[in-house]
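Re: duplicated header lines in exported structure tokens

Our pipeline writes sequence and tokens for each protein into one text file. With two proteins the header for the second block appears twice in some exports. Here is an export where it did not happen, for reference. First protein block:
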Amino acid sequence: MQSRENWGSKLGFILASAGGAIGLGSIWKFPYITGMCGGGAFVLVYLVCIALVGLPVMLIEFSVGRKTQLNPVGALKTLAPGTPWFLAGGMGVAAGFIILSYYSVVAGWTIGYIFVAMSGVFQSFVEPAQAAEYFNAYNTNGAYSLATHFIFMALCVFVVIKGIKSGIEKWSMILMPILFVILIILIIRGVTLPNSIEGLNFIFKPDFSKITTTTVLQALGLAFFSLSLGMGAMVTYGSYLARDNDMLFSAVTVIMLDTIASLMAGVAIFTAVFSFGTDPAAGPALIFHVLPTIFPQIPGGYFFGIMFFILLVIAALASGISLMEVVTAYYVDQKGWSRPKATVIFGSLIAILGIPSALSAGLMANVKVFGLTCFDFMDYVSNVYMLPLGGFLLTIFVAFKWGVANFIEELKQGNAKLSLKPAFAMGLIILSGLLILATLISGIIGTD
């Protein structure tokens, strides 16, 4: 058995976990879903969901990982030997594999758009329809999509192959501060635009009439996705934790950083969107169809457009390496492979698996799986089924198999003064599980 690395510092672990959580979920998905769901009221519901679902499940994942010092499959095999519970961990590894295969395609678009922004193309966009036409042409060009997809996967392999301290921790300590600095710069630019107060009111002044069942379900799903739960990343990162780490403090800090990043991205985007009277409910197209038409209207917009897409790449890379590590750790722990071998082989396989997703808008647009393009099918299977099901099974595992007493004991390893009543912990875990189950059922029956 190979010696297992630990994080070099508590800050390194927090920044790496925050990077895994933030990703495109915070910088891309949070703003567009907030825009579609009415702004401030959705934000409030989202914050409640973070507290009721995000924190308990993150603590569960950290605890299971640190207790066993193993990947999700090995962890559940150790805690429940001779049972099928390891399959729940296997779902996390599989989810990481599948999600990264198409996530890297979206991340590749952001890499490509750094160069698009640098070329000055944005200056020719007068309305979102023009930006949309350009993006669609870009997206259907298989050569561009494949090239940037492979570049992003190569970056993930480059970081993960170097290990925990020299790779993931080192680069997280560099990337996360840069990410927040760029966000601050973009916010300063946003709030100094004319009528930017309307954007601030949109995100921070709730209209409670806009809270519906759909709003709550969207907030639940986003809270789970945004924190990278259910995909094995936090179990894997937790497995490299030292015994004296205060997991409650770490989890709260990670969630705060993720939430702050989401809100900062919302401020940066919506101040610009409202300043120029564009549609905040543009959906997933907000980043590629709407913002490129706004940057040319902003003094210094050429520079800020480039910075924005650099920000997206940094966020995507921080999450991409956490997903890559889930798969790598499994083969290092369970199969005894060397880290370089596992990283290169499975980085290559993930890149190959992502080819149909990269070509889904072009050469393989007519290839459908259950009526969906390859890209949409991978996204649907992982987000509707695998992530919520994996998270739900973990809550059931802790509540009824591993036991709440063992969970609390693990939490106390780094915080002896922690006072947590078993009945309260059990109630919170079961509530979290039921809320996750609600997102799973709503996704399956199509309540969006």
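Second protein block, exported in the same file:
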Amino acid sequence: MKPAIAFWSGGKDSGLALDRVRRACAYDIVALITTVNEQYRRVAMHGVREELIDRQAQAIGIPLHKMYVAGGSSNDDYVPALCRALQRFKAQGLDDVVFGDIFLEDLRQWRENLLNDLGMTGIFSLWKHDTRQLAEEFIERGFKAIVCCVNDAQLKQSDVGSELDAEFFQSLPAGVDSCGENGEYHSFVYDGPIFRRPVAFAVGETVYRPLGAGGLSGGSAARAQAIPVPATSTPTKTKGFWFVDLKLNEPEPAGAVTR
């Protein structure tokens, strides 16, 4: 199998994309890349603590490379950090990068343009698949995840902390994508076929962060959403985001590996 790297948000789509790539036996994923806010030490928009992403990688058994960006989460911070991370792997002879994107054309084009400049190729294992079917596949494959963030324009405070099970997907309002591809919600996946053991965590407080306020994601939620696609002038009904704070509740296992 050809070695490759995979972008890892810690959520449902990146988990399902990794599962599909592994089952296809075309690529050997040798590293995961996660973007972490340098100031708050959390995954942008997801608001998940850095140490929980570490635990995911340890439970999966793939080394994790953390790409740190400054608190403002602007493209001026993100793009240079991304290029440095990719160039590091390119220098090791790795040309292929796996993403969990599903149907956002501008985002895929942005990624492919950047990768092309670096002499690398994007692998989109979920691309153009029906998101309702992907949600069903997620359940059927035995994945388990929790909603860690929701956009208040589409979902409610009570949706944060929900398990991503059949009941959750069936309860989504009309107009909300099943996989949250438009940013309606984000998730933290803690068990499934890609894991050698579940990730143990505790559910903490639920907090609300209005647009423009520093949140669990660290910085402006509006600006964080603009990464890596430039912000648009389209009016939004979003006033803010609900987050649930997830925490570790067990000691770090021996033999942890990062890179």
